[in-house]
Amino acid sequence: FLLAFPSITLIRTVRFLPLFHVLISVKGPWIPVSLFLVYKIKTQMDEEIDTRKINNSFLRDHNYATEADIISTVEFNSTGELLATGDKGGRVVVFQREQESKNQPHRRGEYNVYSTFQSHEPEFDYLKSLEIEEKINKIRWLPQQNAAYFLLSTNDKTVKLWKVSERDKRPEGYNLKDEEGRIRDPTTITALRVPVLQPMDLMVEATPRRVFSNAHTYHINSISVNSDYETYMSTDDLRINLWNLEITNRSFNIVDIKPANMEMLTEVITAAEFQPSQCNTFVYSSSKGSIRLCDMRASALCDNHSKLFEEPEDPSNRSFFSEIISSISDVKFSHSGRYLMTRDYLTVKVWDLNMESKPLETYQVHDYLRSKLCSLYENDCIFDKFECVWNGSDSVIMTGSYNNFFRMFDRNTKRDVTLEASRENSKPRAILKPRKVCVGGKRRKDEISVDSLDFSKKILHSAWHPSENIIAVAATNNLYIFQDKVN
Amino acid sequence: MEFKVEAHRIMSISLGKIYNSRVQRGGIKLHKNLLVSLVLRSARQVYLSDYYGGICLSAQQAREWCEGEYMASKQGKLVPGSTESLSESDEQSEVAVDKQEPRDVVESPAGLHVETQASGEQDSAENGVSDSGCSDIKTPEESPEATQTCEVASVVTAISSNCISAPSPSDPKEETETPTDCQTDNSESAEKHSYEPKAPQAYTNRKRTADDSELTDSPTKRTKLTSTSLPSTNDENKGETEEMDTSNVSSLITIFGSSFSGLLSNKEGEQPDSEAEDSDSGQICCDQMLKNLNPWSTAIVAF
């Protein structure tokens, strides 16, 4: 798949192809999920391959995906009106929810492509002889302050602030140039007129407004916008930098865990996030399974944590891979700001900010993989970084797994469900069945055994609408959007 | 033992991953390489500790060991106080020490190592890791039974083995019994090692943190290791590791080149450097281990 990087800059057309629109509901009153929509972002290359494969009688629903189309991040904006996805090819696709219309009540606010742009290009650091991937690691929306939308997108080294705005009028009637833009001969101008704004076809344009670069030696893994809406932080493996959204040539380092001697390195930062209501508080997680809460008022350099959230390791589960599976892949504050959720390889944990010694709740995502850690290490799956999300009311948490499964846990009822994001299981008006993985012994019908799981189909990224029960789940190069049943 | 085979396999896989990371697009990923190096370290300790944990020596091996040519480079590390700071086995060794107080070996592992080749219990005590594909955790009482089987290891040619037979915790002179026991138990060809995870497999599972390890390591290392015995120990250790690794991963080693020089060769020059850096002699092997297993960190430093 290694295209020579100059060729990646060739323009590829991206076509939005809605594949499905079905009504599905899930049994069980506590998480009604329905209205299954699939968007597959295809390139021209993809379509050629599809044709070829169909002609050769390959599997119709092939899993082949161009590497560049693999979705690497999904994020709703603060109102839920927009949904942004970033992919490995450095592109950002923004979906907008259409207004509900009385004519079609069952199509309750579908998401349609709003804008597509190339956010990052592959770069080459000549000084270090390193290629910088264009893969979008994270997208974060800024709160909306005017008609335009702003988002931050980042790859391994550079953060960019993009402005996504609509244009539906254009000025016409210039004096010095004609309609095509050619300069008019001044001697032909006999009268002056005032240009007038005329309506035009709606055009959505994305422009880069700020580029924040050259601040990170290591790979950026997360960005987080502060609640003061003036600053944001970018986090790499060893350092966290604080930026002002307006200033690109300066950033402040607020956390630095790089040891004096790199050979003494024992842990790296894996994720960081600002507290949603306190602009001075943030947390960062480490590869050792600990979370540190820092207060920026305490000192300029927050190397000393205010709180350390760490659970002692269970000695009965020691193995070669204990360190890997305890490494935290994602940390998210609840909307209330009172709780923290962390994801490591096998579990999701909810922490109370007031209790550092152990998590409030621990949920097993796929504990049946514990006996397979060696194989998962060989095929690199053990390094997969799953994300986790809260629902709007902080009562349900969701995270992904393998075989295109994703799991939801209701914190109140302690019930959980496993669902699958797959086109095969979706028919019009079908009911999305909860799936079950059979751990051992007799496998019941409809259950899937651990050995049959497809580890190439993983759901790493997902997002939950800030107020409604709408979820967006990224399965390789497909984006699935699930919605509440209308009834 | 199957966990030795498993450990070896994991080591090879880990080395392969580290190698591949150098040619991956996007540069070296620090986090992944750190995790891989941790796994490599654990596997390595398990792998090497096998040699000393109640391993039966072949006659040839005993000869080779007596010649002092081959000593597991891990030997020094396996000895309490020489393990890496990140290793849980350090803490385990401490616990093993506590449990096996009567043993002289525990008290002066370095001296023991140099003189008698024993300290298998130390090494085996460091097998704090267990995996689905690895052996079960054994108690000191159970290990004698396991001691009887002999394992064929194509790689290991010579080990300063701990052919300590049925553990008698109160026997301070086990090491002297070792050669005899090993020879009688050994049924392998001269080329191959027969060894056994030795008795004192007092596994303790304690939370591994670098901080804990470093804190606990230093005092134990100071009391246990003597500076005079250390250099020779390290040399011997290196030799063994070199032999073992070379035959296993020679291709990878040549590819890695200088990055793994510490891992492979008897770099005696490194010894004085480490010693100079670290006043605590017990830290030397630990440092070397870290250096050996973090060749990519130099690349990161060059960032």
Overall shape of chain B: globular
H/E series of chain B: HHHHHHHHHHHHHHHH
- What structural class do you assign from the helix and strand content of chain A? mainly beta
Name the overall outline of chain A. Answer: globular
Family (chain A): Belongs to the phosphatase 2A regulatory subunit B family.
InterPro entries (chain A): PP2A_PR55, PP2A_PR55_CS, WD40/YVTN_repeat-like_dom_sf, WD40_repeat_dom_sf, WD40_rpt
Protein name (chain A): Serine/threonine-protein phosphatase 2A 55 kDa regulatory subunit B
Subunit structure (chain A): PP2A consists of a common heterodimeric core enzyme, composed of a 36 kDa catalytic subunit (subunit C) and a 65 kDa constant regulatory subunit (PR65 or subunit A), that associates with a variety of regulatory subunits.
Description of the structure:
The complex is a heterodimer of chains A (487) and B (303). Chain A has a single domain (30-146, 217-484), classed as YVTN repeat-like/Quinoprotein amine dehydrogenase (Methylamine Dehydrogenase, Chain H). In chain A, 6% of the residues lie in helices and 40% in strands. Chain A has helices at 5-8, 44-55, 322-326, 373-378, and strands spanning 14-22, 34-43, 71-76, 82-87, 91-97, 111-118, 123-125, 130-132, 138-141, 149-154, 159-172, 196-212, 222-225, 231-235, 239-244, 252-256, 269-274, 281-286, 291-295, 307-309, 330-333, 339-343, 347-352, 361-364, 388-390, 396-400, 405-410, 416-420, 436-438, 447-449, 461-464, 470-475, 478-483. Chain B is built from 16 helices and no strands. By secondary structure, chain B is an all-alpha fold. In chain B, 61% of the residues are buried. The interface between A and B is large, with 44 and 45 residues. Chain A: Belongs to the phosphatase 2A regulatory subunit B family. Chain A: This is Serine/threonine-protein phosphatase 2A 55 kDa regulatory subunit B.
